Amino acid sequence: MASPSPSLAALPSVDRLLQRRESGALIEAHGRPAVTGAIRAVLAEIRASTNPVVDTDRIVERVAERLEADAQPSLRPVFNLTGTVLHTNLGRAQLPEEAIEAMAAAARNPVNLEYDLAAGRRGKRDAHVEGLLCRLTGAEAATVVNNNAAAVLLMLNTLAARKEVPTSRGELIEIGGAFRLPDIMARSGCRLREVGTTNRTHLSDYAQAIGPKTGLVLKVHTSNYSIEGFTASVAEKDLSTLCRERNVPFAVDLGSGTLVDLSRFGLPHEPTVEETLKHGADLVTFSGDKLLGGAQAGIIAGRAALVEKMRRNPLKRALRVDKVTLAALCAVLRLYSDPDRLAARLPTLRLLTRPVGEIRALAARVAGAFPKKFEVSVIDCESEIGSGALPEKKLPSAGLAIRPGGARTAASFRSLPIPVIGRLQDGAFILDLRCLEDESAFASQLSKL
């Protein structure tokens, strides 16, 4: 067997490295097992190197660097300058301070999650949000699970397992990550009964599909795309009347979901949960972390008898939310009780309604903070809402075009202490500043580029 090279023979042992004074400080900060593991990993890298460096001081430095990198949290704050406000990959809605404080209090202390303080016995976790949801939507009852896909899954499994669910072919949506509604329906145990065509579905199509095997009729709000031209769809009121005549539940999946008329804030109107229930829907499902502006959750609101059936489904326990999510959702829902101040207090609405003049002035200020090696110009651009909400609505915005603007530039911005996420477009690296609120924190790190 070949003997080790002279340089590798000089490698210090693990024990010797652990005995160094610098290692003592690392052990105090990270623990002995972590330091030992890092030393072994660095020594293994050196042995595998074609040009090994056996300087003991440098080895300890590499161990410290490795430990510091390992100690960094995987989830890190970033600057979302993509131009997409509700960016799924970047966590969707930013929570208001009221929700953050409520989450911290719930995380720090025991809480009455499933305890009725007045009666002194076991309670229901839905009780913390149900009253708020019913007041805001006009529903008889409401329950919460961990996202909207789970809400649809629970609803279908409870009311339509081994039964048919008529749904328009034009509403068989796909959301991010190739996640499709028909897949959810299959997992729920129901059978999809496609009605109509991609562009035209009539009331008679539903009438012909409803029969003894029908569990419920599902209408899906196509929030992330639109079909134009020679089209036809069935109004919720008409479909509700048909379902009542046939004694079949009528459910609507709103997807993004909103609790207020967005047109009052200068945005396009989206159907609200309250409107959908007034149109005759027995159940409505929607997300908590999109247009509603809260934490990730799926909400089901509607007839009390149907909601209670879902609560008794064992699947509900598997899909329920924890105390921290409930605390955040409660805090956000309370903000809706004061709609006149909602746009100022709810980050999602604040960012969506931010005046373009304010964003343009911000861009002019920030442009001067960049290192001189970059060519930076203020530009007009367009933001989008994101997460499948109002895909055709573009929001006038402003930002910066940075050149050179290739992949290396984008990677340089992502390597900053607070990574900056933008987009590449027309040979430039574009930063849409609609979502930049901490101007000083952003500008202060640009010198590190």
Nutshell version of this structure?
It is built from 20 helices and 17 strands. The protein has 449 residues and is an alpha/beta fold.
List keywords for this structure.
Aspartate Aminotransferase, domain 1, Aspartate Aminotransferase, domain 2, four-stranded antiparallel β-sheet, 449 residues
In which order are the strands of the major sheet placed? 4-12-11-10-9
Show unreliable segments.
Answer: none
Tally of helical segments? 20
- CATH superfamily of the largest domain, by name, is Type I PLP-dependent aspartate aminotransferase-like (Major domain)
Instruction: Please state the CA-atom Rg, rounded to the nearest Å.
Output: 28 Å
Under CATH at level 1, the class of the largest domain stands as: Alpha Beta
CATH fold assignment of the largest domain? Aspartate Aminotransferase, domain 2
Helical percentage: 40-55%
Distance between termini?
A: 49 Å
Strand content: 15-25%
- How many strands, what sense, and barrel or not for the largest sheet? 5 strands, mixed
Query: What is the CATH architecture annotation of the largest domain?
Result: 3-Layer(aba) Sandwich
Give the overall average pLDDT: 92
Structure description:
Helix content is 41%, strand content 18%. The chain is α/β, with parallel strands linked by helices. The chain folds into three domains: 14-71; 79-89 and 350-448, Alpha-Beta Complex (Aspartate Aminotransferase, domain 1); 97-342, Aspartate Aminotransferase, domain 2. It has a five-stranded mixed sheet with strand order 4-12-11-10-9, with helices on both faces. Strands 13-14-17-16 form a four-stranded antiparallel sheet. Strands 1-15 form a two-stranded parallel sheet. Strand 10, helix 12 and strand 11 (283-287) form a beta-alpha-beta unit. Helix 4 (32-48) crosses helix 5 and helix 6 (97-108) runs antiparallel to helix 15. The protein is globular. The two termini are 49 Å apart. The model has no long low-confidence stretch (mean pLDDT 92).
